[in-house]
Amino acid sequence: MSYPYTLPNLPYSFDALEPYIDERTMHFHHDKHQQGYVNKLNDALAKWPEGQSRDLVSILCDPDSIPEHIRAAVINNGGGAWIHTMFWNVMSPNGGQKPAGKLFDAIIKSFGSFESFTEQFAAQAGSFFGSGWTWLVVDQEGKLKIISTSGHNLPQAKGLQPILVIDVWEHAYYLKFQNRRAEYIQNWWHVVNWPFVMKLYNQII
Ligand code: MN
Fold first, then answer.
1. For the chain, how big is the Rg over CA atoms in Å?
2. What are the extents of the domains in the chain?
3. Mean pLDDT, to the nearest integer, of 170-189?
């Protein structure tokens, strides 16, 4: 990814995650919301040539380096552009099931059981107040943690490496589930792309 940023294609068709995540939501979410973040990120970076050649994540991890008059625009829209691409990739029409290998072992060590992990993750995603994201991250000591961030803030800005994320902004589920966020989360487990999450984990440790 580099400036000018473009909207990446979904790694599957818009209806591929049915019936768990509906086609209409995927169209609005990708074609309108993520496209809007990409456009506004480019608009902001047009006013900051130095930022155009820098790595987006490293910019977002060093907000003080962003000129003040575009700082909020770069953080909000750059984060939105980046996180949504990760979100598409942690889902798959062949998703669900459970992780295996080193990641499975680490989940058992950190959370006791896979079921306990999914309960704790769903509880945090379900209770997060306002617009944000719930993540499974690897901390500086290599341990797994569940965290949430507001807006479009990245865990990397706190020194944490993300391997799994769910969008809990209302636009991610309102068309199909309205206010029933817990139901959205329960459906989402059916499309989690564990092989992709395992690949990210194995690259980090
Ligand atoms: Mn979203």
1. 17
2. 23-89, 101-204
3. 97
